[in-house]
Amino acid sequence: MGAYLSSLSFVDLAGRLPAAAAQGLFWGIMALGVYITFRILDIADLTVDGTFATGGAVSAVMIMKGVNPWVTVLVALVAGLAAGFVTGFLHTKFGIPAILAGILTQYALYSINLAIMDFKANTAVSSATPNLVMTGLNVNQSLLVCFILAAVIIAIMYWFFGTELGSALRATGANQEMSKAQGINVNRMKVVGLAISNGLVAVAGALSTQYSGFADVNAGRGSIVIGLAAVIIGEVVGEAIFGKKLNFAGHLIFVVVGAIIYYLVYTLILWLQMNPNLMKLFTAIIVALFLAVPYLRSKSKNSFAKAGKQSKKEA
Amino acid sequence: MLELKNITKTFNKGTITEKHALNGVNLTLEDGDFVTVIGGNGAGKSTTLNAIAGVWPVDTGSIIIDGQDVTGLPDFKRASLIGRVFQDPMTGTAATMQIDENLALAARRGKKRGLKWEVTAKEREFYREKLKLLDLGLDQRLSAKVGLLSGGQRQALTLLMATLVKPKVLLLDEHTAALDPKTAEKVLNATDRIVAEGHLTTLMVTHNMRDAIEHGNRLIMMNEGKVVVDVKGEEKKQLTVEKLLQLFEKASGSEFANDQALLG
Ligand SMILES: Nc1ncnc2c1ncn2[C@@H]1O[C@H](COP(=O)(O)OP(=O)(O)OP(=O)(O)O)[C@@H](O)[C@H]1O
Ligand SMILES: [Mg+2]
C-alpha cells in the first residue's frame, strides 16, 4: 500500500490534466452531436459509433495525401452529414425504427471506413505534418484551438436552434402531432437533425485522429455511451449549479463540460493505476444509473409498494 | 369553404378488427359556418375531422377546402388551410418549449421556415396582446415552458395557435372535454369570440348536447359513419335537447345510446 501511494505523484497528475481537458473538448463536440439526437430529437442514434471513425479515417487519409488538415475536418463534416442522412433516410422513408436504422448504417460504415483507409485497420498521421488542427505533441495549443472550435460550434448551434428551421426541429422532438398540425415536415426535420448530429461527430473523429496521430477503424466503438455520459454528467452538474435557470446555451456548454469531467475522471483512474479497461464498465454503470434516476424518482413518488403500505396503515 | 364528397374510410381492412368508420360522409360548409357535431361513441366524428386534417388518406371520396382539392395531400401540407385543437390538452402544444416559441411555430404555419430568427421582440408584443384577450394571465408568462400550464390554459393556447394564421377550416375535437366545467366554459367563450371575430368556418365536436345547441349556427349529428341529422338557420335556433333526441331516433331508427350526452 505504501509503495502504491508513494508511486502516485501529484505533479504527474497535474501534468496530465491539460491533455485530459483537450480530449474532453473534442469529445465534447462529439457529445453536442449526441445531444441533438438524444435530447432534442428524442432519438437514440447509434450511427455515431461508425461516424466517429469515418471522420478520423477521412482526415488521416487526406492528410497523408497532402491536403490541409483544416480542410480534412470540413470533408469529415460532409462525410458525417451524409452518414446521418442515410440513417434518416432509412428511418423516415422505409419506416425502419431509428435505433435499427442507426445500427445498419454503423455496420455498413465499418466496411466503408476500411475502404477509405485502403482496407487497413488503421492509418498513421505523421505528427510532423504542418498545420495540424491539434496534436498531442502540443497540448496547450491544441487545448486553445479546440476550446475556440467548441465555443464557435456552441454559438452556431445556439443560433440555429433559435431560427425558424431550428425551432421546427425542436418542435419535432417535443411533439410530432403538434408539429404536423403546424405544417412541419417532421420526417425532413429528423433527417436534418440526424445529419447535423453525425456531422459534428465526424468532426470530433477528425480532431481525435489528428490529436492522437492515427485513425483506427475501431476508434468510435462505444462512443455513443461516452457521448451520453457527457450529456448526462453535464446536465446533472449544470442543473446542480444553475437549477432551472439553465437555458439552452447553458445546456450546450454543460454538454462539453460533461465531456471534460468525464476525461478528467478517466485520467484520474489511469493515475490511480486502475485498469483502464474497466473504464467502459464504469461508464456504462454511470450512464445506466443516471438514465434510471428520473424514472426511479417518479416511481418512488408513485409506487404500488407505497400505496400498499399507506393502505395497511389506514386499516 | 369545405366540401366532403362521399368520404369512406375502413380501418384494418381484411382483418378481424375491420371497422367501417366512415360510410359516405357528405357535407358542405359555407364560408363562416360554425357547425357543432354530435353523435355516440364511435360514430365517426373524430375520424371525419382526421380525414379533413389528412392524418391518413381516405379510401374514397374527395375533400375540398376553399376550392382546393386536398385529398392527395398529407397533413403537414394541408396545415396552412387548417387549424386544429385536440381533445387531449397535451397534443396541441410542445410542453418543453416556451409559450412564445409555441406561438411562433403557429405563426409560421403554411409558410416557409428558413434561417430567420424565430421569436422577434415585435412578435412577442403581438402575442402578448393576443394572450391578454384570453384572460388567463398568460400574457405575463411568455417565456414560461408550456408544460407548466394547466390543461385549460394549454387548450386556450392551442386555440390561439390554431387561429393565429387564419385557417380556412377550424377543427375542434371535444376540445373542452378534458377540462373542469368552469375552465371549459372559459375556453368555449374564447372559442365563440375567436370564431366570430375571424368569421371562421368551424367544425366543433362535443359530447354535450346543450353546448351543441347553444353554440354555432348549424348542428350535425353522426351515426355509424354518416351524417344523419343536419339542422341550420331558424330550426337550429329553436332546437331543444328533446327535439334533438327525436330527430336522432327518426334518422337512425334507434335510441340515442349515450348517457354522457343525455346528462350534458
Ligand atoms: N386509427 C384507427 N385505427 C383503427 N380504428 C379506428 C381508428 N380511428 C378510429 N377508429 C375506429 O373508428 C370508429 C369511429 O371512431 P371515431 O373516433 O371517429 O369515433 P367518435 O365519433 O369520435 O367517437 P367518440 O365520441 O368516442 O370520440 C371507432 O369504432 C374507432 O374504434
Ligand atoms: Mg372522438
UniProtKB/TrEMBL annotation, chain B:
Subcellular location field: Cell membrane
Domain ABC transporter, chain residue ranges per copy: 2-249
Keywords: ATP-binding, Cell membrane, Membrane, Nucleotide-binding, Transport
Gene3D superfamilies assigned: P-loop containing nucleotide triphosphate hydrolases
GO molecular function terms listed in the Swiss-Prot or TrEMBL record: ATP binding; ATP hydrolysis activity
Topology relative to the membrane: Peripheral membrane protein
Protein name stated in the entry: ABC transporter ATP binding protein
Organism expressing this protein natively: Lactobacillus equicursoris DSM 19284 = JCM 14600 = CIP 110162
